[in-house]
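Before the break, one more example. Copy the sequence into your notebook; we will annotate it together after we see the structure.
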Amino acid sequence: MRTLLLKRLIFDNYKTYYGHQELDLYIPEDSRTQHSKNIILIGGLNGAGKTTILKAILYVLFGKRQMDEKEYNRLFSNVLNNQYFDEGGRDCSITLFLETDKKEEWEIKVSWSFDDYKRVLNENRNLTVRKHGARHGQSVKIDNIQVYDRFIDKIIPYYAAPFFIFDGEEIKDTILRQDSHEMKEAIQKITGMNSYKELLSDLRDIKSGLENEIAKVSKSKDMNKIQKALTIENKKIEECQSKIENIRESIATQNEKAQKIKNRRDEKLNINMKSRDKLIKKRTELESSIKYKKEQFNTAFQNNALSIILKSKIEKLTHRIKIEKEQREKKMMLEATLTPYRQFIDELLAHSIEPALSEEQLKQIRAIGEDVWIKENNLSKGNQLIEELHDLSPKEYTSLLSRKNNNRQSIIDLINNIESLEQAMNNMENDISNAPESVDVKEETSALDNILKKTGELELRYKAINSKLKSSLETKKSLSSQIESSSQQAGDLGGLEKKYNDVNIIIQSLEEYIVESTILKAEYIKEEFASMLTKLFRKQDEFGKIDFDTDTYTVRLYNDREQEISIHDRSAGEMQMISSSLIWALTKASDLSMPMVIDTPLGRLDSVHRNHLINHYYKELSEQVIILSTDTEITEEYVELMKNHSYKQYMLDYSEEKKYTVLRDGYFEFVRS
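Here is what the structure looks like once it is written out:
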C-alpha cells in the first residue's frame, strides 16, 4: 500500500497569513500507532483562514487542473497579503512538505509575483526531493506542468483528491454526484480496478501485434484472409466500443439533466408545501392538537391539582407518622423485653426484709435492676424524641404511605406544549397572509417524461450495439483461434507462437482475475459501508435500508416496503453520514493510504452524530487526519473527545485591527465559558 503523510505547510504573506507562518502537521509513528493520536486539530472563526489551508494544499499538489486562465486570474488576483502589499511587498508563496512511503521528503513550493495593481505577473513551481536521512536534496524548477502532473499523480492521484481533501459541509456532493460518469471512473480508479483494465488493454494490443506478425511470417492466403477479416472485426469492435461509450455519456448527461429538473421540481413542490392551501391544512391540524392538549391538561389538573398543591405538606405528614410509628414500636419492644424482669422484681420485693426498706429505696432498687437488665440484654432504653400526635389504624397507615405523589412536571409540560402550539398558530396566521399560491409542475413533469423517453431510446440502442459487439468479439475469438491454429501448422515462426500463446494465457487469466477481484472488492466496499453506517447513525431504523450496489458502485436507499427512495430527499446531515460511510469504505478498499484534510466536518450535525464521527470515524479513518473547525463546532464536549485523539492543536487568531491571521498553539483556549 502506498502511504503519504503531510509534514509542514508554510505561508509567506499568502492571503490572510501575514509574514512567515508555519503549520507543523507531522505526527510521529509511535503517536499514530501506539497512542492512537492521529488528528491535527485547527480551529478558528469564519474568515480566519481554515478553508485557505485546505485549498492551498490542493493547489500545491494539483495546480490549475480544470481551471481556465480567466478563473485562475480571478481567484489569484487577491492572494497577496494586504498588509504586506501596503508595506511594498510584491510576492508570496506556499510551501508543502510531504513524506512518501519510502521516507523521502518532497518539498513543493509555489510562488507568485505581482504588479502594483496586484495582478499576477508570474507563477513559479519548484520541487526538491530528499532521500531518507539526507539534509540536501535534488531540486528542479517545474516548467512543464504536464510532466509535473504525471509525477505528482504517482504519490497522490488527482482523481483521489475529493475522497481525501474536502469540505465537510459539501461532502454530501459525493452522494449527489454518484451517478455521474466521472464519479464512477474515480471509484474504479481509487479501488485499483482501472489499472487492471489498462493492463488488459495493453496485453490485447500486444496480442493484436503478434497476430499481425504471425500473418506476415506465414504468408498464407488463408491466413491473409483471416487477418483481413480480423482487421475488419477489430474495426467493428472499436466502432461499437466508441458508440457504447458515447451512449453511456449521453445517458449520464440525460440523468444529470433529469436530476437538475427534479431539483427544480422539488423546489417548486417545496413552495407548494408553503402555499396557502397547505398552510390552512396545517392550521387545522394545529387547532386539533391545541384542543387535544387542552383536554389533556384539564383532565390532568382536575385529577392531580390537590395532590400537587399539598405535596410538601403530605410529605411532611408522612415523615412525621413514620417516625412516630418507629418510636412507638421501639417502646413496645422494650416493654415486652422488660416484662420477665418486672415479674421477678415484684416477687422478690414482696418478701419481708428486716429492717424494712423505704419506698424510695425500693424505687431505687427497681430502677437500678432495670438498668442492669437492659445492659445485660443489650437493649436500648430509648428516649421520647417527639410527641405522638397521631393514632392511625394499620389500614390508614398503609393507605397514606402508598399514596402516589403526583409530579407537577407533566402539568408544566402540557402548559408549555399548549403555549408552543398557540405561538405556532399565531405564526401560521402570518404565514397564511403572506403565503404564495400553489405552483404548477406540469412543465417539469413533461420534461422528465421526455428525458425518460430519450434515455429509453438510448438504452435500446445500447443493447443493440452491445449485441453487435458481443457478436464481433465472438467472431474475433474464432478468427484468433484460426490464426493460432495456423501458426501452429506453419514452419519456424521465430518464437512468435510461444509469445502469442503466453499472451493469450495471461489475458485469459487476467480477465478471470479482474472479474473475481471486482466482485470481491465491491463486496468488501459493501461490508465496510454497512459497518460504518451502523456506527454513525443514531438509530438503526432511520431508513428501511441503505445499501451499496455492487453492480453500479452506487448507494441506494429503500423504505420499509423495499421501495427505492431518492437520496436527494434526505437532510444535509443524513447525506453527510452516508457520504462519510462511502468514503470510509472506498479508502479501506483502496491501495492508497492518504492524509485526510477536512474543513468544518461537524457543522450540520447534532451532538449524537458528532460524537459518533469523532469516536468511531476520524480516529480510525487514516494515520493522519487534519480537521479544520469553526467556533460553532467547538464545544466543551467536542474538546474533551478530541483530547484523546489529537496530537497537536492550532488556533487561527485573526486580528480585526490588523486584518491578518497569526497561528498559535493552544486550540483549547478557543472554548469560552
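DSSP finds 20 helices and 16 strands in the chain. The chain has a mean pLDDT of 81. Try to locate both features in your own notes.
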